[in-house]
Amino acid sequence: MATFACFDVETTRLDPTDGRVIEVAVVRVERDGAPAGEWTTLVDAGTDDLGRTDIHGIRRAWLEDAPCFADIAGDLTDELSGCVPVAHNAGLFWPRRGFIKRPGTIRVSIGAPIMTEGKKARAINDHARQWIETEATRLLEQP
User: Fold this and answer.
1) Whose CA is closest to 109, among 131, 88, 130, 133?
2) 90-107: buried (b, 16+ CB within 10 Å) or exposed (e) per residue?
3) What is the pTM assigned to this prediction?
4) Domain boundary assignment for the chain
5) Picking from 10-19, 85-94, 98-107, 131-140, which range would have the lowest pLDDT averaged per residue?
6) pLDDT, tens digit, for every residue of 112-128?
7) What are the two backbone dihedrals, phi and then psi, of residue 3, each rounded to the nearest 5 degrees?
8) Which of 9, 115, 117, 134 is the 20 to 30 Å CA partner of 98?
9) How far, in Å, CA of 88 to CA of 4, rounded?
10) Angle at 63 between CA 61 and CA 10, to 5 degrees
């Protein structure tokens, strides 16, 4: 039975080619809906410019002791390994720590399982990052 890896990535920009990752969260769910685990981490993006804090709600002080992306790459690989990735654009309508939730259409994108056997962490992360960036761009471009 496939396990789904529902993930959320907060970045410094809405444009995935320009933004830096500042938080990653993964919730794994079995096909029958049973929880299979969760993982989250803040990420030091190496910049003081966090972009639209009104969207992601993350403050610079929270990132002072956060690991850089390279330090969490192996853990992220473990979380996604063998799972079907699931991305969403819910943050556009239901911002974190936002009091007002706006109406809108939440789009969900389910990718192919990420096969990790025999691959190095860098290659797996590059594959996952490319899929995330492509899907994020596609989701943002849809009306």
Assistant:
1) 88
2) ebbeebeeeeeeeeeeee
3) 0.64
4) 3-141
5) 98-107
6) 887 888 888 778 878 88
7) -105, 135
8) 134
9) 13
10) 115
List the one residue out of 22, 74, 83 whose CA is nearest residue 48: 22
Contact 79, 26 (CB under 8 A): yes
Only one residue has tokens 């992306």, namely 69
12, 48 Cβ separation under 8 angstroms? no
SS3 state of residue 54: helix
Asked if 77 and 57 count as a contact pair (C-beta separation under 8 A), the reply is: no
Find how far residue 62's CA is from the centre of its chain: 18
> Do 3 and 30 contact (CB within 8 A), yes or no?
yes
Q: Are 20 and 140 in contact (CB under 8 A)?
A: no
Return the CATH class of domain 3-141: alpha beta
Tell me the backbone φ, ψ of residue 90, rounded to 5 degrees. Answer: -60, -30
CB 113 within 8 A of CB 128: no
